[in-house]
Amino acid sequence: MRLFPLLPMGTILVILCVSNIHMAFAQNENQFIYNGFLQARLHLDGSAKITSNGLLLLTNTVNISHPQVGHAFFQFPFKFNTTSSGLSPSLSFSTNFVFAIVPQVPNVGGSGMAFTISPSSNFTNAEGNQYLGLFNSSNEGLTSNHILAIELDPTLNPEFGDIDQNHVGIDVNSLNSTDSASAMYFSNKEGKNISLELKSGNPMHLWIDYDEAEKLLCVTLAPNGIPKPNQPLMSKSIDLSQYLLESMYVGFSAATGILVPSNHYVLGWSFNKSGQAQSLDVSKLPSLPRQRKAKEISGLMIMVLLIAVALVLITITGTAYNSRRKKFEEIREDWEKEYGPHRFTYKNLYKATKGFSDKELLGAGGFGKVYRGILPSSNTQIAVKKVSHDSKQGMKEFVAEIISMGRLRHRNLVQLLGYCRRRGELLLVYDYMPNGSLDKFLYSNEKPNLNWIQRFRILKGVASGLLYLHEEWEQIVLHRDVKASNVLLDAELNGRLGDFGLARLYDHGTNPQTTHVVGTVGYLAPELTRTGRATTCTDVFSFGAFMLEVACGRRPIELQGLPEEVVLVDYVFLCWGKGAILDASDPRLEGNYVVEEMELVLKLGLFCSHLVPEARPSMRQVVQFLDGNAKLPELPNDKACFGTSTSNEASDFLLSFPSSFSIASAPSCSSIDSILRSGR
């Protein structure tokens, strides 16, 4: 039977040639497959070449006078991060290839290779050795690289955080892998993972699949000839739209050192930008050259190589150690030895916060930045605050106070766990509060509105915490910055007073020595701005502003609004004077509150905001009022006692107290408390 009955012989030959080419290379604009590379459309540079039997050889062991770098990229770029046919941008791709790393000395290999997606196929400035021909010392880690690489690394490079000397890693713009795993594969037959040695010289099959819809990158490894395992080696959630550009090249990069050279081979390669990559025909893949057996290599050469490797590793390790030591270098002085348990290492805090990553940033302001972290040793969630400090100015006393406050134990205080000092930074470590700060709930539309029951419980909790600081601990602790943004909410939305960065301690029965004005405008007691001396009464004033803030859903000072509404205390007093104090309540509550409790909080907030320190209640009184164990006196009908007035007279206020409070002179916060407790 004639196959081509009507065609001339020349035409038949053309058809046969085209048919053969198609069998070796199936391609459209989105995919190709090479079962061997004799007819491959690749751009090669460096030491890369195609052998006579169709192997893609990226580096070799022939010329070892200098480190080798080899690249092989598909000749034309693919469209990645772009919109086609009116659809959403598609970044999905699928590829698989068979590779082999054959060291000159069996099982003694260096550097490695990587499948690479890059905006350019020109890597003129890239370095060999540990840089794999992708980066150099100046551009490694830059976001402008726009490079995705799957590295096959038989070398341990501490400077890049390698997990071992036989791993597969997912690299984005850097050789510090975003995810990595020791080389192994899942055996479908045995139902378990089995280790592989990358530098064994044996061919291995690697599958790489990215699903744009799921934003999931899967990497699967197996010995050549074994079907694709059911479980991948790595599954990484990653949004490649942040890294890949519209036009990208796909290919391979490999590098090797002088002392431990290796041949890096690719036997076959399939790629698809629009679906699942075709499976390679293992039977058609070219064969690797015969490997030399270990006994064929002289013992002297092995010894020389091993000594050379040891020297290089010692040098690299020493350099990496010094670099790492400087990176995590801290300030430590002899007097800190007694605070050992409270001193965190910078290295642990760095790891806990993922290198103080912006993704772990909880908040930032004039005080510094706060990061979320997880201590690797105990899997405990923490919050780390970084603040600037001058270690030459009273740091010993400051750290002593930090350690003292670390002993505070109360359910309504954020636990200060310890500290770390490094160069110009002081790092304070706290318990992590999952619901963040109270002000976000009061003023941000992103957070749900707190109901009155929750707000009232928060006020009572913070009041209890302040009472503990003022009277119930071994020393008196002045917080000096009570406000909504420093009240954090735990998982059950209980209020916990935090941020002790400005707090000061002094012994019971003594006068505080603080003379430096610190705090937040709107919460500062008027006498503090005149004398600079903080007391428990100045904390009470701040708590009064805080109470009104929570009840009214407004900051103590609002620059926008009517003149009588700029200062919250003035506005609440104005509403009280008109007999409509409830008008000051937060409109977001829509009247859903206990009237008696709302009136109590608003009036008590005014009492705490009295201009005369001695006329304010103590925190013990505040707790008693909130718990309903004491009756709140009538407010003095004198605006000069509150708000922005500068009057120093408190006689009207004192006369307004019940007879049980009648004393000859203005009582201090502590003396009023003693009268309440005596029941007179």
From TrEMBL:
Leader sequence segment: 1-26
Lineage: superkingdom: Eukaryota
SUPFAM superfamilies for this protein: Concanavalin A-like lectins/glucanases, Protein kinase-like (PK-like)
InterPro entries for the chain: ConA-like_dom_sf, Kinase-like_dom_sf, L-type_Lectin-RKs, Legume_lectin_dom, Prot_kinase_dom, Protein_kinase_ATP_BS, Ser/Thr_kinase_AS
UniProt entry keywords in alphabetical sequence: ATP-binding, Cell membrane, Glycoprotein, Kinase, Lectin, Membrane, Nucleotide-binding, Receptor, Serine/threonine-protein kinase, Signal, Transferase, Transmembrane, Transmembrane helix
Cellular component terms per the entry's GO annotation: plasma membrane
Subcellular location: Cell membrane
Protein name, entry field: non-specific serine/threonine protein kinase
Residues annotated as transmembrane: 297-321
Originating organism: Quercus lobata (Valley oak)
Pfam family, any one: Pkinase
Chief localization: membrane
GO molecular function: ATP binding; carbohydrate binding; protein serine/threonine kinase activity
Gene3D superfamilies on file: 2.60.120.200, Phosphorylase Kinase, domain 1 (3.30.200.20), Transferase(Phosphotransferase) domain 1 (1.10.510.10)
